[in-house]
């Protein structure tokens, strides 16, 4: 089959999300200028550079009480900071609960029953028990094609790593099984690894 997205795919469900998989989930925490915390998962998320370390996530819809975007982007516009919390399999239900569309003054940490810790380098909350958390200063927000599509880039200025995830000096994903987004309502988790040496190693 072949289709042009502008013409539609003719299938019961859009296959695009199922094709671009698996995708890591950035559990983004922010705080507005009134001091209210927000927590929301984004599956258009990834690391984009080593030096300095940088990440990105994309928000692709809006809320009535935030105008052209959602709470996360609105808060980052105001404060210039955010934290990426890594999602482990054991926290899948809490992550999903935090995806609910709630009023902008609602604390998703409380709504989802997630324990809060304070960031070190930025004024922002983080998920206390996350395997890792990346404290970020926003470098740019880029509007891309489409309604309410924004890509947020941030430089990582602080890194929290849960002690039990370090095995022989390496951050070992098998200790927590990172959750990844597939298409539709499907998810998966990483449980095993294999290595491939590059040809020029």
UniProtKB/TrEMBL annotation:
SMART domains: Flavin_Reduct. Residues 18-173 form the Flavin reductase like domain. GO terms for molecular function: FMN binding. InterPro entries: Flavin_Rdtase-like_dom. It holds the Pfam family Flavin_Reduct. This is Flavin reductase family protein. It comes from Roseobacter insulae. The lineage of its organism: Bacteria, Pseudomonadati, Pseudomonadota, Alphaproteobacteria, Rhodobacterales.
């Amino acid at each position: 089959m072949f289709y042009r997205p502008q013409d539609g795919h003719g299938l019961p469900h859009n296959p695009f999300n199922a094709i671009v998989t698996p995708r890591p989930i950035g559990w983004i925490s922010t705080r507005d200028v009134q001091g209210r915390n927000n927590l929301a998962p984004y599956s258009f998320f990834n690391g984009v550079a080593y030096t300095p370390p940088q990440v990105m996530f994309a928000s692709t819809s809006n809320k009535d009480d935030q105008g052209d975007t959602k709470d996360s982007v609105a808060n980052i516009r105001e404060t210039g900071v955010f934290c990426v919390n890594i999602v482990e399999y054991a926290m899948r239900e809490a992550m999903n609960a935090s995806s609910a569309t709630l009023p902008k003054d609602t604390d998703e940490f409380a709504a989802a029953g997630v324990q809060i810790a304070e960031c070190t380098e930025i004024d922002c909350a983080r998920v206390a028990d996350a395997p890792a958390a990346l404290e970020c200063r926003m470098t740019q927000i880029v509007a891309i094609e489409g309604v309410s599509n924004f890509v947020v880039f941030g430089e990582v200025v602080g890194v929290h790593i849960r002690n039990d995830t370090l095995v022989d000096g390496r951050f070992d994903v098998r200790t927590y099984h990172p959750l990844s987004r597939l298409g539709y309502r499907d998810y998966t988790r990483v449980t095993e690894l294999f290595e491939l040496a590059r040809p020029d190693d």
